[in-house]
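so my prof wants the structure for this chain in the tokens format not the other one, which i didnt know existed until like an hour ago. anyway here's the sequence
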Amino acid sequence: MFTGIVTDMGEVVSVAPRGELRRLRIACSYDYDGIALGASIACSGVCLTVVDVAREDVRTIFEVDAAAETLAVTTVGTWLEGTRVNLERALKIGDELGGHIVTGHVDGVARIVSREDFDDMCRSWFEAPRELSRFIAKKGSLALDGVSLTVNEVEGDRFSVLLIPHTLAMTTLGARRERDALNIEVDLMARYAARLSETR
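here's what i got, hopefully its the right format
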């Protein structure tokens, strides 16, 4: 489990195919001694398992495998050397829940329709896959590239969010432009509420 509060921006340093998998090496500023094999790290919203970790100069580099389903459903299949990714370590008992409950199980890909910058902030409109739009509500929560955000407006399959200066500076969202694709995870509570409604 995660909260959607990004704690580091990592960089993909290599991508290697391994049959139906892809092995990614990601550089970060996390303490080498603090990353255990088998640990879960959300990489731009995608929960991936650490299969190796190394120290190179001042950077820590961890390795993860992306399976076929991950490559098909998320943006991971488009990542190349140099791609910047939002990182978040898994929750520990007693951690502050600053965002909302995020599983790291990405539902699909949303695209930026428009971006308006003003007063060091940014308002962006996104288009979500039609099958996910029913889970998106005004003032509700969702995660985009692993960042917990509050929905401002909803119009059909489109929704808007307001990004504050801190979010623009501390995550990859500051560099996103029109037509860019982002991983989207809808709110877990909305998904369960919809399922309960369907079964009645």
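also thought this was worth mentioning. The first strand starts at residue 8 and ends at 18.
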